[in-house]
Structures are given as C-alpha cells and as structure tokens.
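Retro notes (design track)

What went well: tokenization of the new backbones is finally stable.
What didn't: we kept losing track of which sequence belonged to which structure.
Fix going forward: every design gets posted as structure first, then sequence, in one message. First example under the new rule, 145 residues:
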C-alpha cells in the first residue's frame, strides 16, 4: 500500500500550443490548459478521476513513481486520497464488504458508500475505518506550487 497518492505528471505542448498533462503511472487520460499553470490546475481534477475510475473498476492503484526532472508532482483532492487509502487498506485485508461491516459495526451499505469514490464520506468515518484496518492518517501541509 502506498503512503501517498501524489503522482508525477508530464506536461507537453501539443500542435496547437496547449499544455497537455498526463500521468504516466496510470497510462491513460489527459487534460490540458492554455498555460502551464492552467494545465496543472486541471491535472488535479484529472488525477481525482484516474484514482476514482481505478477504484470503480476494482483494480489496484499504481504505485506513484519518483518525480524526475521535467515532471510535476500533483496531489489529489484530500477526499479522494482518503478514499484511495481506505480502498487499498480494505483490499489488503481480503475481507468481504459484509465482513468489514460486521467488524466495524455498521451496515454493509455504509461500507459500500465508504468505498465508493463518488459518495461523500466524512473524514472522521474514513479515519476510524482506516484505524480499524490497522492504518493511520497523517497530514503534511506544504507550500503551494
């Protein structure tokens, strides 16, 4: 399980002069912007969708590669990073959703909502579920890029 969901992005100019952003770790998806800054802003939304789509497809999230020269590290929105952490921790256990619900003392529908990237779940609920699965959430605040 990864301890971060920050992924390196590549930005290239297309034939029209637009800045196109891709995430090589996912191997699909692109976004763009008229400027590099606009493209990086769009990259955060793209990363959210890449993570969510991977979860919807019940696939493993790729391990973030190291940032290298010419790549920009993009942090996803906090809610999807928390959902991704819970998703991966749950997959590691091999438990069914029903069993996790029983162990956590909630309805199975609540577990489905917690694992659904498109459903809003309170941060405290995800934190408690992660702790139940033997994980903890830490937060690092850095300078805006």
């Amino acid at each position: 399980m990864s301890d971060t969901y920050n992924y390196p992005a590549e930005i290239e100019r297309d034939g029209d002069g637009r800045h196109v952003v891709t995430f090589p770790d996912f191997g699909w998806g692109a976004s763009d912007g008229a400027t590099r800054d606009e493209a990086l802003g769009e990259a955060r939304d793209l990363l959210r969708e890449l993570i969510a789509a991977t979860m919807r497809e019940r696939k493993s999230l790729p391990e973030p590669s190291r940032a290298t020269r010419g790549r920009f590290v993009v942090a996803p929105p906090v809610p999807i990073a928390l959902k991704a952490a819970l998703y991966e921790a749950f997959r590691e256990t091999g438990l069914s959703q029903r069993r996790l619900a029983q162990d956590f003392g909630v309805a199975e529908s609540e577990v489905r909502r917690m694992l659904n990237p498109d459903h809003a779940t309170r941060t405290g609920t995800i934190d408690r579920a992660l702790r139940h699965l033997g994980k903890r959430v830490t937060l690092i605040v850095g300078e805006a890029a």
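Added context from the reviewer: The CA atoms of residues 25 and 93 lie 24 Å apart.
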